[in-house]
Amino acid sequence: MQPSELSTFRQSLLQWYHSTARDLPWRRTRDPYRIWLSEIMLQQTRVAAVIDYYNRFLEELPTVGTLAAAELQTVLKLWEGLGYYRRSRLLHKAAGVIVEEHSGQFPQTFESLKQLPGIGDYTAAAIASIAFGEPVAVVDGNVKRVIARLKQYNKPVNTNAGYKDLKNIADHLLEQESPGDWNQAVMELGARICRPKRPLCESCPAHQNCEAYRENRTSAYPIIKKKEAVPHKTGVAILQRFGDSVLFTRRGEDEMLGGLWEFPIRLLKEEETLRDAVRRLAQAYDLPVPRSSEPIAVIAHEYTHFKLTIYLFEGNEARELSSLPSDTHRLLPLHQSGELPMHRAQHKLMEALQNTQQALKF
Ligand code: SF4
Fold this sequence. Notes:
Layout: H1 3-20, H2 32-42, H3 47-60, H4 64-69, H5 72-79, H6 86-101, H7 110-113, H8 121-132, H9 141-150, H10 160-173, H11 179-192, H12 211-214, E1 232-239, E2 241-242, E3 245-250, E4 261-262, E5 265-267, H13 274-284, E6 297-302, E7 307-314, E8 329-332, H14 344-354
Helix pairs in contact: 1-11, 2-3, 2-8, 8-11, 9-10, 9-11
């Protein structure tokens, strides 16, 4: 783009943004804590799903200091249902670092923000530009799509090389005076106008500057390198009763979904049968091996990197629980289990259970 063309492009996009931007709660603030929270919640999650979580989280933990002082279990409970729980654990950890190493003051530059746990290029650029006005461009999926079309970028966008190229272009296009608004404008354009399918080019404030539109090739971009097939894993779980209560266990902090609660669960080893896995699981918790080889519920769940099927077996009558630490093991009636933060697959097991006759016993 020639300098004059670039200047017109920037003006039109900013004007469009200021006149049509959605009124979202995190757009009414420059508080880095609130912007950070929204950016972390919005990763992998739709805007509509985030708003309630965002408001609830801030009601309970309104400052970085309150977040740092909160128990991880409180944070996980506030995050429950939003998925990708690693985000919330890192948020909690980073709040601790801000309080302990920065006296509770947010680092104010792109580079210093990136030193915090869970903050990568994208989040650091978003906070630095929106809260502190630093001229650094954000590059997320929406931005990649917009730039790939504007520039007819002819290589895959989901590679390291693609990211570097697009980041350079995004930094070149960036409006230096209001980088926060600019970054949000490009992302908003990608979300609402330059959509993955059937972009609304006629309503697009950038169509005069768009190479793909000019050549009627918008559907050819962005180019995406195909990902490998997602592996499928199988797990077994045991519904173990003790009187009116059921055994729940907490996942280790360093595991995937760390800190969240579930029925005792194990993934099958290679070539292991369901029966052998159930036996191994029961032994690990010193529980009687379930009698029936028929599961009482089966659920399927998809994570980013694998698909999971879990078979839930009814435990055998157990009189006593050998002494197990209470921070990792709880006995609760099913109807009271809502007080424990749980992951989505565990919620699915509970829902499936409610649909079986077994649930009537509780
Ligand atoms: S003209 Fe169409 S393809 Fe180009 S940026 Fe706008 S919406 Fe996207």
